[in-house]
Structure formats: C-alpha cells, structure tokens
Amino acid sequence: MAFPTDRPRRLRRTEALRSFVRETRLSPEGFIYPLFVCPGEGVRKEVRSMPGVFNMSVDETVKECAEVKSLGIPGVILFGLPEAKDEVATGAWADNGIVQQAARAIKREVPGLLLMGDVCLCEYMSHGHCGVVAGQDADTSKEVAEFIHELEAQGKRLIAIPSPNLRGGASATALATPSAVTAAMAAENYEILNDPTLELLAKTAVSQARAGMDIIAPSDMMDGRVGAIRTALDEAGFQNTPILSYAAKFASGFYGPFREAADSAPHFGDRRSYQMDPANLREAMHEIDLDLEEGADMIMVKPALPYLDVLHEARLRFDMPLAAYQVSGEYAMIKAAALNGWIDYERVMMESLLCIQRAGASVVLTYFAKEAARLLG
Ligand code: PBG
Question: I want to staple 338 with a disulfide (CB 3.0 to 4.6 A). Which of 4, 223, 298, 345 is the partner?
C-alpha cells in the first residue's frame, strides 16, 4: 500500500501516539556505571577529560554506590588505580588490591548492587600494557620508562617503543622529535606474551570473586583468557560466578580519556597486537564465537556508537545476553559539545543510549548512567 493510502505521519501526530507505537524503551535496568577507585580517604578527584567522572577512594566509592542503587541502576563496574605498579601487575590480583578492598566495602554497605570486576592488567603494569611484556629485560624496560617520564616532565609529548638503540644520551635528544619517534616505532622489538598473561588474569579473576564480585569481565583481549578464567574460577569454587567477556573489543582511539582516568596508557607502542582492528566485523564474530566456546555467559561489543553494526550483527547471530560499552571518548565528545553549547546535552545523551539499545544491547556500560537514570525517573 502506498501514498496516499499509507501515511506514516498519522502515527507521529501526538506524543501519545508516538509513545504508543515506540519500538524501543530506554530503561535504567540495563545500565552499568563505571567507577575508578583510588587510594586514600575522602578523595574525589575529577578526571580532566571526563567532566562529571571522578577518581574516588573506597569510602567515596561506597557513597557513590548507594546513590547509584537508589537511582535504580542495577550495578557498577570497578577499575582500580593501585598504590604501586610493577612488571607482574601485583595490584591486580593481590587480596588487598584497591578493587578488592572496594568490592568488600560495597558488598557490606550496599548489598544487592551488582558488582562487576574489570579483569585486565594495564592499570597495574609499570609499562601500561594489558599483558606481560618480553623482548627486553626488566631493567631495560624500567630504564626506558624512566627515560620517557623524564622527557614528559620536560613537557615533551611523545609515544615511543623501547628498543636497545633508544638507550643513552644521544637517542634521548633524538627521541623528542616526531621523526625519531617514528623511527623508534619501526625498530619495535617487544612483544606482549599471551600465555604467561593468562595465569595473571586467572589469578586476578579469582581474587576478585573472593572479594565479592558478582560478574567477572575480562577486557584484556588475550587469546584463551575466558577459558583460563573459567577453569580457575571453577577450581576455586566459583562455579556460579558468570563471565561477561569483552569479546569484540577494538583497538580504539575512543579510549583516550579512560587512560587518563585509570592512568593506564601504554608507555610505549599501542594495543593493536591484542585489541581488534576497527575494520573487521567478521573477525569480531569469530572472537565472540571463541569466547562463547570457552564459557562466556555474556558478551560485549566495545566501543558502542561507532560499532553499532557489530553490535547488531552480534544480536542477530548469538542468543546470549549482549552488552555494549559506551566508552570514555564517546562520553567526552558529547560532554564537550554540550559544555560549548553546541548540542542539546540531554537529548543527545538519551538518543545515544536509545540507539545503542535499538541496535541490540540489553546491557549498556555508560558514564551517563546516573544522569540518564535521573531523567528516566
Ligand atoms: C582495560 C580497559 C580499557 C577500557 C575498559 N577496560 C582501556 C583500554 O583498553 O585501553 C576503556 C573504557 C573506556 O574508554 O571508557 N583494558
């Protein structure tokens, strides 16, 4: 039937009619609010590139969680800023790690709130990578990290890759120029080791489960991590702890503000050897397949808005709970435009969340969770 018989505008005439035929209804019941826990007491430090998002000490995190729960948001995901970092990410799997402390306190003070633990090593590694780094001895890597920090302290912004020819005074000067950085990247001589990393990830997952995490969410993108974590959880008696795997996680520039919030930027190189190429949808389906075979109970696509096609394809193919992570850069862009008066903040925020849900996500991890929940009343 065509015009003039068919007039789709008939059902758009009033809000009552529009609401009546609405296909997707946004609700806070699928929201997860990310939190960044730091050492100290009474600390609430705003993240420069994420207005409205804070690094919070355990006591402040607990207060925040009470508010989150009162807004009808079912859960939070915890990230940690440890007191110290090293080459084996001790802070990630230590029983008294910052995230473990927060989980215990939240469980005690805000029962009923779902606690999700992000399992990754980057926040806890001295070099900022999500896995164990090889290709240089520990001394060299420490030396390179110190050297880079020194240059950064002089106000020089750079990315670099450790390489034997970067040591010493002459290269120190050379490294400060963009062409030297490019040359250094070409001379790349490090590797993120997959299998040794699995052991640390599994340890981290078990220690988080012990601290009371309800859901374990690995975000590292090592091969075989879901299987390794499932086995370790089962052996430790946590057969009933579900895994939400960041199955299709892309190597994205949209994570920039998060790395400031979590102090987790790699000190050299990037994450392209483990996170996915943004160009690949079929590979994303393969990654999800593998994680489900290894025992994932829920799957995630990340980032969200630039990857709605991936999310939609995953919804069509897999009959499992599907999450999307609306990441820090997505939040920062909307916030920045709003603060400049360039967009209608509430409208764009709600539209972005609605569209992520329409594309297929039943769970959305979002820094907008509190504000959106408030608007949804
Ligand atoms: C840890 C991790 C990251 C994010 C979630 N878990 C950063 C990264 O992979 O570099 C990003 C979340 C965001 O940008 O909001 N690996």
Answer: 345
